[in-house]
Structure formats: structure tokens, C-alpha cells
Amino acid sequence: QVQVEESGGGLVQPGGSLRLSCAASGTYIIITTMAWYRQAPGNQRELVALITDGVTTKYADSVKGRFTLSFDNAKKILYLEMNNLKPEDTADYYCNAAGQRLGRRFDSWGQGTQVTVSS
Fold it and tell me: Residue ranges of the chain with pLDDT lower than 70?
């Protein structure tokens, strides 16, 4: 079993910053990709940013230059540093971890953490 747990959401004013954390836990897991998605009310879930093999990152155009991923491979924690937040960043943010455990692929989601950008 691979568990994923997000933390760090909250209420912030426009222009402010937040850092989200995503911890993946489980024995014998090899993570190949971790990613943040978000879903605003009435919208589909969309990719925010992902990191592959702990190195290669990809960002949605809407967050480039404002959001930054970092990955602690030893602790299996993915961080999303969000700066210059805008009201349109308001959404539930979900973490996904994918990889292998004992020769089998896994693809696990967290429960989500809410981010609200409002004055």
C-alpha cells in the first residue's frame, strides 16, 4: 500500500505565498513521478506541476515562473512553493505519486488540500 498525504493549504491574500507538502509513504516503493493537480469548483482536475525521476520538472503555463517544485527523495516528500498567488489559483490541490512497489506499478492520490486566494 502506498499512501499519499498533502498538507499546507490555507487562505492567503493575492500576491502572497504558500508551500504545499506531499508525503508518500509505504515500504519498498520506488517513485518515478510525483505531481500536483488542482480542481476548482465546476472545473476539471488539471495538472499544475510534476517531477519525474526526482529531476525533470514540468509546469502548467499558468503557473510558470510563480510555482516551484522540489523533491526530497530520501523522505519522499514533494514540495510546491507557490508565490505571487492569484485568485484564479483557488482550488483543491491534489498530490499524485506513481512508481513501483515490489515489481508492481502503483498510482496513488491524496485526499487534497484547499488553497484559497482572496482579499
Answer: none
